[in-house]
User: Fold this.
Amino acid sequence: MTDQSAYCMVSIAPIRSDKKDASEQVSQLVFGEPVTILSAESPWCKILTYFDNYEGYVDEKHLLLLTNKELKRWLDGLHFSLDFSTTIHTPWGKQQLPIGSYIPWGNPSNFSIGNDQFEREALSSYNKFDSPVEAALSLINVPYQWGGKTNCGIDCSGLIQLIFRFFDINLPRDAYQQADFGNAISFEDRKRGDVAFFANNTGKITHVGILESNESIIHASGRVRIDLFNEKGILNCDNDRLTHQLSFIKRMN
Assistant:
């Protein structure tokens, strides 16, 4: 089964650092997300994500196999769901999908992945975001979750990756990887929508957020929240403490 393609058939599947349930969750797969299976040792598959080349271990029960032809068909017109909850009917029953799930462009009522047929319930509303900042604001108060990347729980880099994907900017998964993208901006030239990166005492990038204004930032820390931002870093609005030390600012679009 080495180098076999597959897709995530559950709403959210943890990607773990090692092949055991107690291992750290380093990221997540969402419904419809394609992967390459690098190796398999039941019940674990070592996978490589298709869009951001992230490696880790996933329970084989969360994946369904695809042929190369089926993968290409699924990738054609694929996009990210902007809706906080989408209900679909699957061969294995009703399922709720989080924001950022992979579905066909145009939200068709019926679609297929490989040989599996799906029916989407009508949406009561449809989110449209004018900017990454607006997308980030829609996620305010989503709880922090290490390795999370949905509205059920998200980490700092998961937030940045998700909101920019809505605008066809495919950033890597982790903050230190995202720091290699975009154009460097001086603090004086910062503006709403710029992405700020923060380092620990050794200089390693460990945190990231998006500027809501020149003096405020949206980031995931405990929850997705808005805090004050200055040339030193992030000032927590609840306790007036500097929580993250600014390293540099990038403009992604």
